[in-house]
Amino acid sequence: MSDTTEIVVPEVAGRESIADLVRKMIVQLGEDPDREGLRRTPERFEKALRYLTSGYGQDPEKLLNGAMFSVCYDEMVVVKDIEVYSLCEHHLLPFFGRCHVAYLPNKKVVGLSKIARLVNMYARRLQIQERLTSQIAEAINDKLSPQGVGVIIEARHLCMVMRGVEKQNSMAVSSAMLGAFRDSKQTRDEFLSLVRGK
Ligand SMILES: [Zn+2]
């Protein structure tokens, strides 16, 4: 998937760059930042981190603008298995998994690929899984004013599995249900059964 939304990199004059700080961190870890394998690591890390947090430079307004259509369709729209990669704000380590999004349109729908881009936009920030889940739901609720929206994220957190806090395969599951998805068990069950593929 290509992200064409502009990435804004805030530069603060006079402050140490992320690369400078990473170099210091490598020293603190007892490593030699000048050895061959590590020499360009600070710059690589900064570049990677800027990309992984590029969602700060994007906003849902711009992202969804021009991709919304008026329709008479009022059946549930479901986008399953959107890959999610984010960074946990407590450990700055990745959490990743799948996101399922559904909404019941109210005369307005949005291009399906935009849903995945919206997920990416919020995932590429420092996050906790629960907030990521509700931000996606709230953005769709705000922009499309649907009859309801449901978002489920199933993710593995490296801060847990790598440190042995949880069993290797354990998934954290979070959900946000708004409107009809909150009020109607039938709507919620339809979403859940579509997600489970039964
Ligand atoms: Zn964490």
Strand count, sense and closure of the main sheet?
A: 5 strands, mixed
Strand content: 15-25%
Provide the low-confidence segments as ranges.
none
What is the subunit organization of this protein?
Answer: single chain
Instruction: Tell me the structural class.
Output: alpha+beta
- Give the N-terminus to C-terminus distance in angstroms: 28 Å
Q: What bound compounds does this protein have? A: zinc ion
| Rg value | 20 Å
Shape from CA axes?
elongated
Compressed to H and E, one letter per element, the order equals: HHHEEEEHEHEHEHH
Strand order of the largest sheet: 5-2-3-6-7
The average pLDDT score comes to 91
The helix content, as a percent range, equals 25-40%
Total count of strands: 7
Individual helix count: 8
List keywords for this structure.
single chain; 198 residues; alpha+beta; 5-stranded mixed β-sheet; two-stranded antiparallel sheet; 7 strands; elongated; binds zinc ion
Could you describe the 3D structure shown?
The protein is an alpha+beta fold and 198 residues long. The protein has helices at residues 18-28, 41-52, 60-64, 112-123, 129-144, 158-161, 180-183, 185-195; strands at residues 68-70, 77-88, 94-104, 108-110, 126-127, 148-157, 172-179. The strands form 2 sheets. It has a 5-stranded mixed β-sheet with strand order 5-2-3-6-7, sandwiched between helices. A two-stranded antiparallel sheet has the order 1-4. α1 crosses α2 (41-52) and α4 (112-123) crosses α5 (129-144). The protein is elongated and about 60 Å long. It starts with 17 loop residues before the first helix and ends with a helix. The mean pLDDT is 91. The chain binds zinc ion.
